[in-house]
């Protein structure tokens, strides 16, 4: 019973971390129709910015705010200076470019911040709880992670479902020419999409780093698990991203606890293959228009 409870709690907290990264992928997909594989190193850069602020003597929350602002700026600059000048007629071109950015940003981070491991503080406690005779591996920082992801989810759902801005961003992503004819400033919408996605990615980077060690590659594994979570839930669904992250977290935690840590990556690959075979658009994909 104790082992099962620990596996479930670890699965939920890890799943929420995967969900945070998946939400960033969903946001960039919904607003630009691009899968940004450079999302992780971009988030890593903003995490280092937050760590620099914290090491200078400021509080975690000031570092958090600076990281979000840095994410907004970094996302906007990447779209304005790089992505915009790539031929988007073929959707594969921007994706290949983001893979190149993945490598370049890693190299730049290693040069600027170094390759050594550095401790990142947690805003809340890292001690588990004891309820009666049962030790519960749920920390204050874990609760903070869950709440933060749910707040981001609510914000994204509200943005795309209840605001004209969200509708305009989606219209710009689906059909730029028609949107321009309707008076939409497509360039600004695409820049805003990249900026907001980078800010959400910054939240993911900070949640992953809290109470652990960071280095230029500390988010690399999350790229795989977060991407699988986004595909599992559906790249077009914020709710699906969170559900996919939770399913991934609990499933991989069970594999790690009952089978072995060495098979976690293999299990993620199996999940991805099964989803692509049985439901390629994801569990929460919207119904597509029928073509004749």
Produce the secondary structure layout:
Layout: H1 2-32, H2 39-55, H3 60-81, H4 92-113, E1 118-119, E2 129-131, E3 134-136, H5 140-162, H6 164-174, H7 176-181, H8 186-209, E4 213-214, H9 220-233, H10 238-258, H11 264-278
Antiparallel strand pairs: 1-4, 2-3
Helix pairs in contact: 1-5, 1-6, 1-8, 1-9, 1-10, 2-3, 2-4, 2-8, 3-8, 5-6, 5-8, 6-8, 9-10, 9-11, 10-11
Structure at a glance:
The protein is mainly alpha-helical. Helices cover 71% and strands 3% of the residues. The chain has one domain (2-218).
Q: Which descriptors would you attach to this protein?
A:
disordered C terminus; mainly alpha; 4 strands; two-stranded antiparallel ribbon; single chain; globular; 292 residues
Number of discrete domains? 1
* Strand order within the widest beta sheet: 1-4
SSE order: HHHHEEEHHHHEHHH
Low-confidence stretches: 287-292
- Span between N and C termini? 54 Å
Total beta strands:
4
GO molecular function: transmembrane transporter activity
Protein name: Amino acid/amide ABC transporter membrane protein 1, HAAT family
Subcellular location: Cell membrane
Keywords: Amino-acid transport, Cell membrane, Membrane, Transmembrane, Transmembrane helix, Transport
